[in-house]
């Protein structure tokens, strides 16, 4: 028996393998897998909304990112930046992801297992206008068509015409471009504006101008909308998998439709 007054001179016991493993996993959990993701956001409501312009709403994709990633311990921070600049920053690894994009525009990004929305470019005109989109000839006959500079409106017929930069197309940039285009349309300065149907209807309703507009043509192409993650971030595959798994859980238990109800839209899977 060792003396109660003197040193015991006992060698320290080695840590068990299981304790070392638990310590390592705790360290990993608080470093690589408990991140704050910086996500590019632009004004494309209801998919992607700038909170300061929408009574704090960040869009259904923003809400979905927060709910799915926070379920696994991550945090999400939104960074306001133009769409094209956001894609560049995500590609360079300076941001962790983009809230909404088309896979065709960034095939090198990391994506969830399935799309998180669908988009269809639609022409809108003043309610009293006789103009209708029926193809290339109708585009040529329009006095002035409003678009947002740098946007891909997906439909080949439309994009082939816009890429020729004809004189009857006004491409604008800067702050609140869609809102400015709608004001010009309502004031008779434009024949038509083209935009995703849900986006334009949401903005017109928000502006209190929905009753002054009408659909004047729908393009043929419906394209999937995705949330995406940076190809430069080694954890992007994990983030994308989390979004996939947690979204399916939300769809099954009804939380997804509850989230979509905040924006007055239905589950894209049913469309």
Automatic annotation (TrEMBL):
Any single Pfam family the record assigns to this protein: SBP_bac_3
Keyword Signal assigned: yes
Residues annotated as domain Solute-binding protein family 3/N-terminal: 37-264
Keyword Signal: yes
Membrane-traversing stretches: none
Keywords assigned: Signal
Record's signal peptide: 1-34
Record family assignment: Belongs to the bacterial solute-binding protein 3 family.
Protein name, per record: Bacterial extracellular solute-binding proteins, family 3
Highest classification ranks of the organism: Bacteria, Pseudomonadati, Pseudomonadota, Gammaproteobacteria, Oceanospirillales
